[in-house]
Amino acid sequence: MSDKDWYSKGLRFSCQGSGHCCANHGEYSYVYLTDDEVEGLARELQLSSTEFRERWCTLEEGWTVLRMDEPNCPFLTEERRCSVYPARPKQCSTWPFWTENLREQHWEKVVKALCPGAGQGRLFSPEEIERIAAENDANYDA
Ligand code: SF4
Fold it and tell me: Whole-structure pTM over 0.85, yes or no?
C-alpha cells in the first residue's frame, strides 16, 4: 500500500473561521516569509519592506518569520479574521494541505485536533491536494 492511499478518495476541508491555525502553539507557531511575501505584506500595510521587517518579523535559522504574538498572529483580528488576507503568506493560504500534514496519523490526530475545518465541507481530490502541497513546498524552496 502506498503512503498516499489513505487519501485516494480525497480529503474534506472548509475553513470554519476558528482562527486556530493562526494561533501561537508549538510546531505551528512559525509563518515563514519569502522576500516576495515580505514585499506583498509591506505593500498591504503601506510600509517599506525594511519597516515591515523591523516591526513584524524575526529571524529563525536564516529564515524571515512573522513575529508570532501570544496568543495569536498579530494580524488575526478579534473577529478571527486575517487583516492582511489579500497578501497572506503561501503557508497560510495552503493550510491544511502541507506535505508534512499528508500522513494519515498526523492528519487524524494532529491536524483534525487543531483545525475544526479538516474533514468538513468541500472534498479536495488527491490531485488538488498534491498540487496545493507542491505549491507550498515550491514557494519556500525558491
Ligand atoms: S497572516 Fe493571516 S492567515 Fe496567516 S497566521 Fe496571520 S492572521 Fe492567520
Answer: yes
